[in-house]
Amino acid sequence: MVFTLVVGLLAKDAESASTLSQKLLAQAYRKDEGTIDWFVMKDTKNSLKFTIVERYESPASNPIFATWQPMCDTLLSEPYDLRIHNELE
Question: Which InterPro entries match (predicted)?
Fold first, then answer.
C-alpha cells in the first residue's frame, strides 16, 4: 500500500519563500530510499503558499522528515498543514 503525505505550507515572506523553493526542489528528496515520488507546487494566487505531495512505500520510508521539519518551521508564518493518506488499491 502506498503511503501519501500532502503538506500545505505558507512562507512568512518572499525571502523565506525563495529559500523554501530552493530546498523543496532539491533532487535529494526524490532519491531517498522508499520514496516513490515527490511533487512540489506553488499556489497560483499567493506566491507564499506551497503544496507538497510525497508518496512512499510505507510510513517508515520517510527518514528525512524529522530533520526537515525544524528547518522548515523557521521559514513559515503558521504551522504546516499535514494530511496523511493510504492510497486505495
Answer: Dimeric_a/b-barrel
With residue 34 as reference, give the H or E element that holds it.
none
* CA 60 to centroid of chain Cα atoms: 16
d(CA 7, CA 62): 14
pTM, entire model:
0.83
**Per CATH, is 3-86 categorized as 1.10.1660.10?**
no
The pLDDT tens digits for 70-79 are 878 889 999 9
What are the backbone angles phi and psi of residue 59, rounded to the nearest 5°?
-60, -30
Q: What is the pLDDT of residue 68?
A: 72
For the chain, the structural domain boundaries read 3-86
